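User: what does the whole thing look like in 3D?
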Amino acid sequence: MYGYSGKILHIDLTERKTWVEKKPEEWYKMYIGGVAMASRLAWENIESGCDPLSPGNVICVAGGLFCGTPVPVGGKWGLASKSPLTGFIGDSLSGSWFAITLKRSGWDGIVIHGASEDWVRVFVDDDRVTFHDASNLVGLNTYDTEDAIRDEYGDDQIRSACIGPAGENLSRIANVSNDGRKAGRTGQGAVWGSKKLKALSMRGTGGVEVADPDTLLQLSYDILQAAQGPHTQKYRVLGTSSNVLNMNKLGLLPTRNYQQGTFEDAELVSGEYLHEHYKAKTTACAQCPIACEQIGHVKEGPFAPAMGHIEYESLYALSSNCGVGDMEAAIKAITLCNELGTDTMSTGVTISWAMECYEKGVFTKEDFKCEKYPEGFEAKFGNGEAMVTLVEMIAHRDGYMGDLLAEGTKRASAKVDEERGTETYQWAMNIKGLELPGYDARALKTFSVGLAAGVRGGCHNRSAAYDPDIKGDVDRFSVDETRGELAKSTEEYAAVYDTLPLCKFIRRCFTGKADRAGAWPAIAKLINATTGWDFDYDAVDLIGVRAHTIKKAFNIREGWTRADDHLPWRWHHEPMKEGASAGHVVTEEELEYLKDLYYKAKGWTKEGLIPKEKLVELGMDDVAEEIGV
Amino acid sequence: MHVHVELFGLSRIAAGTKELSLELEQATTFRDIVRLLSTKYPDMIGNVINPDGETLHPPNIFNLNAKRMIKPNQMGECPSDGDRIILMSVSAGG
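Assistant: Here's the predicted 3D structure for the full assembly of 723 residues, as structure tokens:
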């Protein structure tokens, strides 16, 4: 088999033993890599109904088909487990040298079972696996942890995935760091923490054998050339932060916990402002010729010397959404999140919920007592120091508020409402427990169902249904019968990229057109040159269908019902007052109508369950047996 | 007629300004405005404006008054007096 080793490594932390599982080629043709392979491994190995923070949960690591090959932007890996934030599938994607080292070590995937009694790190050195005491690493931030492991071996080619203090403290919004990049969303860092797994390190000295190296090299060269041209220029120069002004103008920029869609200081926290005043350099993920990551640097003042990767989603969550118009505070907060291993988006949205609670009198200054401020502080919108302090409090579960917010908005609001008789759930901006992305879907009606039905919760990376809304392909302020198919089509399109995986920023670099017709034939050629298979347009399209289906199946097995495809209360009941999207909500009737359309487009039942024959059509007979109807 | 053009992203960097105020003939189309921009700010050609000097390089797009995107097949339409045109390029992800 080309492109794969055919082997999955299983590691049991309880018994400290390992075993190898061989998978047939047909399995790889169905699940390819990235989030689909990781999610399939989760389906096969997780004890259904388990507590996500119990030993019954597993950590599933899956490499990418193109890792270690010349294919641009193919250096990504997938991570899956049962999410402690949502109770459903937690799947993440990350691009780094960890992904390539995984492949070079000879493993297509790794499944980590059980839990250790003491803090442990695991070292996979090609085909040798060793367990090591990690007590010396506990408390270290993510960057220092990776450095300490490299230093111990004196080998800078050792790549680690690890957790920071947030994961150690079982924060349900913790992420997994790898080579400075983050496998974020859905709180998988807490799963690692529950297993007392501080780090998984890899050293890979092998190569990746491909079916047709000459063709693959030529195809890769052509894509690489295109990737350094105008199709990616905006990413290279400004990165994704340039979306701040776009969203603000369209009235979609989450501001003050999604109470507004425009922010009066948007210019001060824009990608353009970052570029002009704070940009230190750009960096790239492994195997990437684009280099979109803008590194912001605060050189002086109270937040110096913060330096971190500034992306739009991190930036909106830790600036406008907290009412903070201070780029330096935003860079500091994002840097801290990355160091402490907590998801920037969930952290920012959870902080903004706390700020709204403070402003509305639910919380008082005393509720914010912490090590740094023993008397508490005023957690008003716009208070950059409060925002930065709360990031640290969450990661360390410092004080009442740190411990509360480390649970994410859904659990935090439920706890407060029970204790205080309040209704703060109305301001808890999550779907299935996952905090929302930086697009206000009250005025993006197609996206609203994409988010509501999202298998990992409210996520802009898994549902790309904002695309037709924002581009003006449809009227974003209304619903019609086309939206179910659009939501289906855009999520399955995204799932193809997340499964290979390839970074979506390459999507125009195949032919200049980002749609399926422009990309799928070129992607099929890449797959075939790598594996020797005979994929065509339809086979590439099926990658996305299966990827989404296995995750949905996982959720159904965990007890998902139609009611779980919801929107936050605010989006149903509170229209924004200002800006280009003022006056709009998604009514409950609209959402139910959109869900009907979406389930129908997917070929599911009205209750959103998957018919057996649909699963059998996809070759997923074992899944049909368990959850098909 | 008088229109304002707001520049976001690469177009702002190329032009070195956030906003333009343009005095235009009544029958000026959106495509004419692209031509004008390419003449006035040649650094936009390549990344924001296609080498033909009259079409926007996707996904750069005109938005009219923060309400409506002007699709490529609508570039022959004319703005109205007082309109605000935003030249933006919406990204995804991050």
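In plain terms: The longest strand of chain A covers residues 76-82. Chain A touches chain B at residues 230, 233-235, 237-243, 245-246, 249-251, 271-272, 275, 311-314, 460-461, 464, 466-467, 470-472, 504-505, 508, 514, 579-580 (CB under 8 Å).
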